[in-house]
Structure formats: C-alpha cells, structure tokens
Amino acid sequence: MPATKDSTRGNRAASRPARPFTLWREVLTAYAAPALTAGTAGVVTGQQALAVAALTSIAGTSAVVAFLVGAWLRHGGQPRRWTTTMPRVVLTVALVIAAVGAAAPLGWFAAQWLPAHTPVPAVPWLERLRIDLPASAALATTIVTLRWRGTTAATPA
To answer: If we measure between CA atoms, which residue out of 42, 72, 10, 23 comes closest to residue 132?
Structure first.
C-alpha cells in the first residue's frame, strides 16, 4: 500500500501564532543567553576575566539595551508606523547602528575618562568595555528587533 501524505497534519510551526512580544521575557533572555555562553567559554578556557565580564558588562549591557530598544519599539503598545512598514533588515541595521553608536562612546568613556578624572583605578576590566559594550548592544538590538518584528503585522503603507 503506497504511503499517502496526511493533509490534516500541517506544519505545526506555521499553524501556531507567533508568541507575543513580552518585554520582561526579552530582557531576561538578553541577560541569560550571553551570561551563559560567554561565562561557559570563560570557565572552559580558563579566562576568569571573561567569566566575570559575562555576568557583568556583557550580559548587563545586553539586558539594558534589550529593555531600551524593546520599550522604544513597543512605544506604549502603539508602534510607530515606520517601524512596522520598513523592511525588517533595514530597521534592524538602523537600530543596530544607533545602539552601537551610543554604546561605543560609553565604553570608551568608561575605559579612558574614568581612570583619568575619577578615583576609579585603571584596571584591565575597564579596557574590556570598549569591546563588550558595543558588541553586546549590537547583538541585543538585532535579536530584540527581529523578535519584535516577527510578532507585529506589517501595516499597509
């Protein structure tokens, strides 16, 4: 007897509605994911500085950026029209550029200015901020923007 395709079984992923965008869940994921991955890498490779940064500057930056970008995208439950009509990739790139553009100077400021103008000593972890902050901001912005756009319906122009 030949095998027949059961038409009653569809693609489950396609038939399920997208999970709603929940800001607290996105922020929690934005903290936990880099903390676990970078923390594990730091422990496995014996880089204590990476393990500590994973829980502080890397995951912390990711969580803060996820909250700020997610809250801005939600805009009080009424998203801005241009954020729903702009192509997903263009919106993501624009927001990543903005987030990295804000995080990079902040990382430089913390690494360079703080030891020179405050009692904060020049310690190696401050130098990590030059890379940790913009990289974490870029990843968190990308993921949150793509998740948010995946849960919103594009409105006709």
So the answer is: 42
Q: Which residues of the chain have pLDDT under 70?
A: 1-18, 153-157
Separation between Cα atoms, residue 17 and residue 137, nearest integer Å: 28
Question: Which of 99-121 are b and which e, b meaning 16 or more Cβ less than 10 Å from the residue's Cβ?
Answer: bbeebbeebeebbeeeeeeeeee
Which amino acid, one-letter code, is at 128?
R
What residue has token string 């994973």?
54
Q: Could you tell me the pTM of the whole model?
A: 0.81
The secondary structure of the chain in percent helix, strand, coil, rounded to multiples of 5, reads 75, 0, 25
What's the token pair of residue 93? 């790139």
What number of CA atoms fall less than 13 Å from residue 122's CA on the CB side? 8
